[in-house]
Amino acid sequence: MFAVEAKNLKKTFKSKDGDVEAVKDVSFHVNEGEIFSILGPNGAGKSTTILMLTTLLRVTSGKGSILGLDVEKEDKRVREKIGIALQDTGLDNLLTGRELFFTTARLWGFTKQDAETRTSELLELVGLNEAADRRVKTYSGGMKRRLDLGLSLVHKPEVLFLDEPTTGLDPGSRRVLWDEIKRLREDGVTIILTTQYLEEADELADRISIIDNGLVVAEGTPDELKAQIGGDVITFIFNNYEDSKTAKDLILNSEIEGNELRVAVENGAEKIPDLLRKLSEKNLEVTSVSASKPSLDDVFLQVTGYRLEGASDQEVDSEEELSEYE
Amino acid sequence: MNNQSAPFFLQLGILTKRLLLRLARRPLAELPNVFISAFFLLIYDGALGGVFGGSAAGTPFDFANGNFLNFILPVSIVSASVSGGASGIYLVEDIESGVFKRYQGMPISKWAIILAPIAVGAIRVLLQATLIMTLGNFIGADPATGNSGYFAVLAMAFFWGMGFAGYSVAAGVRSGSSQGAQAATFLFFPALFLAPTFTPRYALKGWLESAAAYNPTTYVLEGMRAIMIEGWVLDDILKGFLVAGGFAFITLTFAVFSARTATEKS
Fold first, then answer.
1. Among A210, B100, B205, B262, which residue has the least CB neighbours within 10 Å?
2. pLDDT band, very low/low/confident/very high, at B264 (cuts 50, 70, 90)
3. Taking the model in full, what pTM does it have?
4. ipTM over 0.90
5. A95 contacts on B by Cβ (under 8 Å)
């Protein structure tokens, strides 16, 4: 039995302008104790897939199951097994972190004493002990995400859904959250994580599913996906876009972005001299050349035909960062 | 793993307590309505009490048996009971902030999620109406039914306030905005003044008398005034309870229906 299974999931939204297929055909499975990452750009269908699997959105067709329970037919039992931290899940800003944990634990059926114990454990786990009695509205973005994560763990779920848990966080807060996610995996929690950050998927995921335009376009471990590309990726940088465009016509299976041209080859060190010769014959001036092992960025480029926008951007909210560390 | 969610009434109690904590954390948001109700009680009594009070004894203007405060206090109580309209705002705030979605992702009853803000609205109505009655008693109101009359007035105010709570919840979830929920108070003002607010119904001019006859507020005011001025006049009191209870029943049913539609999965 898989921890999570999606079989030909489809979600169509009705709108005045006609039907919108947010998820066209998504299938994957997640083994128990695994971190599985759903990677894709904004609007790819990641969050919609998560909403269907967490019983918050009706499935148009296909089937989703959690630990063998059907998300449509056994939604209440599914919700008992899972923890959810969605992008737009709210926190009550007027309450303190301690009050939120306690209230959530009581709703999960803990006795008052057990709820107090669980609150203390979780405050410790997500590193919010010192801020426990402050109202949530005074928390930084990173602290709120950690609180959100903690709240999804109150009932000790077997499967945890995290929808873009680090979007908008500074690198420091992101790293803290990554460490907590890894620790949860060590405790045996199955984690499904959506992200638009390649490095996040690379760092955390045991397996990755790349979703684009409502479809799964690649799936495997990070190493398997990188191995699909080949031995090395050679990157040429030209003086101008025109040169890189001309070079693309000369070098088979290459991709360009601005002045940069990338091509996957079996052996980069052997191939570079040949390719440089070919380019200089056409008087194309190369300003730099390098060979590296393929990254998930290369995989994404190959399977979708474009780069994940802002994949390596570290969006830092300086105000949040200041308030967290002051 | 803990997968036993709390029983329904415990869920309702926990969610109600959470909203009460929110309410306690922003007391300034609660003050205007009770302040306005108290302020107008003093103003009405100060401005009109001299004309329609003890000095009007034996004249056609003596419609409060010499104590105008007993006549005007129900207006302030009815005004305070509109605070039940905050229920819809509490619910919409939770929807807008995403807290509602968090609860939907837990195995807890959606009825508990919807009824908690209504319960807080009820507590708010009872508190504000009690405050106004205490003030009224302090400055000279003396119900013909004795102190037990206050409880009957409070009960009627409670049903009336629940009517506004239901209306605001329905308006809030249907519009999906706090402004929609606040629309409940807009309904209140014409309802209060197209009624025998300052004089008995028989003293109103023709068109206003006709309008008042179709306005449910009229019967609530008359029911409360019967308790305050005349004693246990069952006819008027029952009409007041029937109208206030009926209003609450209709709007709460509408609220539950609206909320159920809004919380269904799309």
1. B205
2. low
3. 0.80
4. no
5. 18, 21-22, 25
